[in-house]
Specification:
homodimer, Tetracycline Repressor, domain 2, 10 helices, elongated, DNA-binding
DNA sequence: ACAAATTTAGGACGCTTGACAAGGTTTGTC
DNA sequence: GACAAACCTTGTCAAGCGTCCTAAATTTGT
């Protein structure tokens, strides 16, 4: 069997952290702590109530804090959103940094491992709720678009590494296309098999299909000649 | 070549209509026309400004109409959103109804045709902007979730038909999984190669990869024995 | 002609929103 | 323990929101 033992991951890594905060520079420890509390509450509200529900007042209330104090730390809502987005994305970037250093035996094993990780993350409530909000926002906010695409570029980097190893004969564009297809393909599952979605319980089978399908296409893909 | 002539669609169908309105029952023609104008303006605002920007006042203004008249036709915002969602989804359902009756030579040709249609639609501004909004809404609104998933169920129906023809040996669950994977996989491209997205210009290659990949996995998929 | 349907015009209610300013309180440091 | 920076509270502002209302004018179908 060409796919034996590819669907059960060896390395059970912990889930992606919710937020990753920047080093603090200046200010008291208290202030920095408060900022983290605010961003945590903002994320909670974003997940539970959606982007509209994440108002300045509700964030402040969730922190048991007065609105004025919130605006002291984040003078505008835009600034809060921007910093929240940074913290969310930074957490993923840390994870992808770790993934790059996977040392599984074969490229295909690593591919299966990465896909398993991503599809596992997709099933969490946080990811199922946050990313569609970001996708919607990115249509009207260039900053969000750029930041989200930058995140995906890092996610693709580890896939690209594997594609390169499996298909050194392919041109760079084609390898990019393959990594992009794999990444996009998995993201699409969010809407169908994410948290509380109707096919959440089929994610296991979907993962199997996805991994086999990805390996097959990477093995055999040949771009059109006129490309 | 096993994939020859599968990537250029024979039947160039027109794009999916923006909205499909229900039969009118009671009222004058004028009133019905106004309702269509309102829903059209609401869709425009949803596409251009996002869900937040689609307020009652802005919809009314976009129709050159007083707020009172808007609330005459749609007493609550919820009702407007509900009817808009219905009109959007009905348009797709009509399209899928037509797709079912494709009479291409082989199942694989029909699969290629359907994938081409969907990926073409994904590149439109309307689809790229509206669906992420719906995905985000569906996380907090059971009505939206149900309606959207109902739409996708119809989209899968045509895929399922093809999978059944190609793999009569598979059990029903596995065929459903395959159709689901194909559908989800394509939806994922919205964020990467949809309208104004960074890989919009790679959609052609992605389509090629997707179709080949889908055909391959449907041809060869075998579920695990313990399933 | 006439009734029903549609539209205008204007207002008003209660509520939430993001933003801001002035004045207290705490914290760390010299 | 002084003292300045950092932190936090309190109160206020204009703007926008959905919903509701009335009264009159206009259009439409028959």
């Amino acid at each position: 069997m060409p796919f034996s033992n590819l669907e059960s991951r060896k390395f059970k890594t912990k889930a992606v952290a919710d937020l990753a905060f920047p080093e603090r520079e200046g200010g008291y420890a208290k202030g920095h702590e408060t900022r983290e509390q605010i961003l945590g509450a903002a994320l909670s509200l974003l997940v539970e109530e959606g982007y509209r529900g994440m108002s300045m007042r509700r964030v402040a209330a969730a922190c048991d804090m007065k609105l004025g104090n919130l605006t002291y730390h984040f003078p505008t809502r835009e600034e809060l959103v921007k910093d929240l987005l940074d913290a969310i994305i930074r957490a993923y970037e840390i994870e992808f940094e770790a993934i790059i250093h996977f040392t599984n035996e074969t490229a295909e094993e690593r591919l299966a491992e990465i896909c398993g990780l991503i599809l596992e993350d997709i099933r969490t409530k946080k990811t199922t709720h946050v990313f569609p909000e970001l996708w919607a926002l990115s249509n009207h906010d260039p900053f969000v678009l750029e930041r989200v695409q930058e995140l995906y570029a890092r996610a693709r980097a580890s896939l690209l590494e594997i594609v390169e190893e499996m298909r050194p004969d392919l041109d760079a564009d084609s390898r990019e296309d393959l990594a992009l297809f794999i990444s996009a393909s998995m993201e699409g599952m969010t809407v169908f098999a994410g948290h509380n979605k109707p096919f959440e319980h089929r994610m296991g089978q979907l993962e199997t299909i996805a991994i086999r399908s990805f390996i097959e296409i990477v093995r055999n893909y040949a771009p059109d000649v006129q490309e």
